[in-house]
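Worked example

This section walks through a single chain of length 156. The input is the sequence exactly as stored; nothing has been trimmed or padded.
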Amino acid sequence: MSRAHPNAFRPDARLHSPAQYQRVLRASRCLHGATVRLHLHEPNRAGKGPRKARLGITVSKRVSKLAVIRNRFKRITRDSFRRHYPMLPPGDYVIVAKSGKALSEGLAQELALLWQRAISLNPTGDTGTMAGSTTVTPASETSNPVGERRPSSSDH
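Given that input, the structure is written out below as C-alpha cells.
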C-alpha cells in the first residue's frame, strides 16, 4: 500500500461541527471577492489547531432558492480548494456566498484569486509590511540629548 504525499488532498479535510464554523467566523481574517468571502483562521502558535488546510462552505437560501445552484457552488468551491490545497498554509478556511449576488460564471477564477491572496498572507503574524522585518521607532520617540537640536531640512 503506497502512502499519500503529506500535502495531498484528503476528503476529510473539511469542517464538520457548527462550533468549528463559529470559531472561524468569530476570529478570522477575511478576504472579500465579488460574490464570496473567504474567512481564514490560522492555527495557534502553541501547536493547537489544524496541521493542514480544512474547508467549510456556507451557501444560504438567500443566495439561491434552488438547491441545484447551491450545490453547483459547493462543487466548484471544493474543486478549487482541491487544486490549491498543496499550496495553502495550515488553517481553517470558510467560504461564504454573499447573499443577493448572482453566482457568476467566473466563480472558479474568483476563488483562485482568493486562494492566491490567502497563500501570500503573512503567516508569521508580523506587524510590519514585510515578513521578518524589524519594527522601526518613529523619529518623535527617539531620544535626543538635552541641549542638542535635531537636524532639519534647512540644515542642508
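What to look for: The first strand starts at residue 29 and ends at 32.
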